[in-house]
VanZ-like domain-containing protein
Amino acid sequence: MLARIVFPVTLAGVLLLTLLPARFLPDFGTAVTLYDDKLHHAIAFAVLAALGSLGWPEHKARLVVVLAFTGAAIEVLQGSQLIGRDLDGFDWVADCAGMACGLTIAGWTKRRVGRRVGGLP
C-alpha cells in the first residue's frame, strides 16, 4: 500500500524540518515565524495521521500514541540549546489538532473509496 511507503518518508521530512537548528532554515526557503508555526505543525501532523491511518487502519490507537509522543519529543528537542528553537506546548496542541483532522480525513477517504469499490454511489 502506498501510504505505508509515503508515511516514513514524510515522517523523516517532518523530523528534519522540525529539528534543524533555526540558523539553517533559510537555506530550505523557510523560517520560523509566530503567525504560521502552529499551522505548519497542524498540517504536518494531519498528513502523518492520515497516511498512518490509511496505511495501518488496524493500529489507529497506536498511531495516535506514537504521533503524540513524537510531537512532544520534537518540542523538548526544539527547546534544547543545540537546536536553538523554542519549546512551545501550544505546538504540541496544534500537532494533536492536526492528528484529529488527519484521522477524520482518512476516515472520509476510506468510506468514499469503499462506496466506489462496492458499487454504491
